[in-house]
Amino acid sequence: MKAEKTVLIDHLLQKVNASPFLFVVDYAGLTVDKFEELRKRLRASGAEMHVYKNTLVKQATTKAGLPAELGESLTGQTAIVTGEKDVCAAAKVMKTFSTEFQKPQLKAGVLDGKYLGVDNINSLADLPSREVLLAQLLGVLQAPASTLVRLLNEPAASLARVLKAKGEQAA
């Protein structure tokens, strides 16, 4: 049995190390159908949810060097959410799903090795998607360039307006 536990801990450790984030979720009272629906939504956002024994998760997170506060939230029926993509998308899925069905409840999380409380995770869920943030950044970066182009074109446009007005006066 010890060899099986070691294999499970190593597998979990690989998942934790490969993911920039980890959420601890209390899934008590969630039906199998709803659990599968949540997994499906998370998979669409690039995340996945797994159930492990709390002791195995504690050992893996300790080996990974994650904050000790995370171990305190590993009580009762817990699942972990990990992913390799957008943390905000996974947080948004969790928040939306728990709002719809009042279950599961977020307990805690870790993002890039830093402990996150439930409020922090909900704040991540309220952020716009990655694509929207990139579009906003692009708009901010393009604004000075477009202003510069307008300023460089203005003297020529002013000269053209003056010449047109003179031409209309002469006629």
TrEMBL record:
One of its GO terms (cellular component) is ribosome. The keyword Ribosomal protein applies. The keyword Ribonucleoprotein applies. CDD domains: Ribosomal_L10 (cd05797). Pfam families: Ribosomal_L10. One of its GO terms (molecular function) is large ribosomal subunit rRNA binding. Keywords: Ribonucleoprotein, Ribosomal protein, RNA-binding, rRNA-binding. InterPro entries: Ribosomal_uL10, Ribosomal_uL10-like_sf, Ribosomal_uL10_bac, Ribosomal_uL10_bac_type. Forms part of the ribosomal stalk, playing a central role in the interaction of the ribosome with GTP-bound translation factors. HAMAP family: Ribosomal_uL10. Belongs to the universal ribosomal protein uL10 family. This is Large ribosomal subunit protein uL10. The lineage of its organism: Bacteria, Pseudomonadati, Verrucomicrobiota, Verrucomicrobiia, Verrucomicrobiales.
